Amino acid sequence: MIHLRNWPDCYEPEGLSASITAYTTNTPGDSMNNASLQLCSMFGAFNLRDPEGLASFQEAFDAFCEHLKSKGYLHSWRLWQRTPHEGYDSGFPDLAILLEMCFHNHQASLDCWDYVEAGTAPLNTLHVAMNRQIQEAMFALYHEIG
């Protein structure tokens, strides 16, 4: 099952060029091959504490992401539920939910991390409402190649 939020515009969202301009921190010799101009996503994989709680988690995740979007960090997000398959499941951890949060670029992802880690209201309340519903979580940040 896939739930789309502000999608399929993840890779070409309206107004992206203005946001990229606002977040450009490109300097000669950038160690990420100019990743500051590339799209960047945070992926999370986890299980829900209540396996029947997907609707509740989705509501909390959407509220969290809407807030981050209103602050200019995100342009879209997705929530996926695993579909068991004997062949495809090789080597991947037994985690039922996958999420993606799409940032305008690498700098936006770093700024968002700082904002979330500051733990200020109302974001802290939204973050706790989401995180209290998950367990066995893994997260990673990736940027677009090319």
- Unreliable residue stretches: 6-33
Overall pLDDT score: 82
Distance between the termini: 29 Å
> In percent, how helical is the residue content?
25-40%
Query: Mind describing the biggest β-sheet?
Result: 5 strands, antiparallel
- SSE order: EHEHEEHHE
Strand order of the largest sheet: 1-3-4-2-5
What would you call the structural class? alpha+beta
Radius of gyration, Cα only, in angstroms? Answer: 16 Å
Protein topology:
Blueprint: E1 2-5, H1 16-23, E2 40-48, H2 54-70, E3 74-81, E4 97-103, H3 106-118, H4 123-131, E5 134-143
Antiparallel strand pairs: 1-3, 2-4, 2-5, 3-4
Descriptive account of the structure:
With 146 residues, this protein is α+β, with helices and mostly antiparallel strands. It has one domain. Helices cover 32% and strands 26% of the residues. It has helices at 16-23, 54-70, 106-118, 123-131; strands at 2-5, 40-48, 74-81, 97-103, 134-143. It has a five-stranded antiparallel beta sheet. Helix 2 (54-70) runs antiparallel to helix 4. The longest helix is centred in the middle third of the chain and has 17 residues, at 54-70.
Q: What is shown here, in short?
A:
This protein is α+β, with helices and mostly antiparallel strands and 146 residues long.
Can you give keywords for this protein?
single chain, 146 residues, alpha+beta, 4 helices, 5 strands, 32% helix, globular
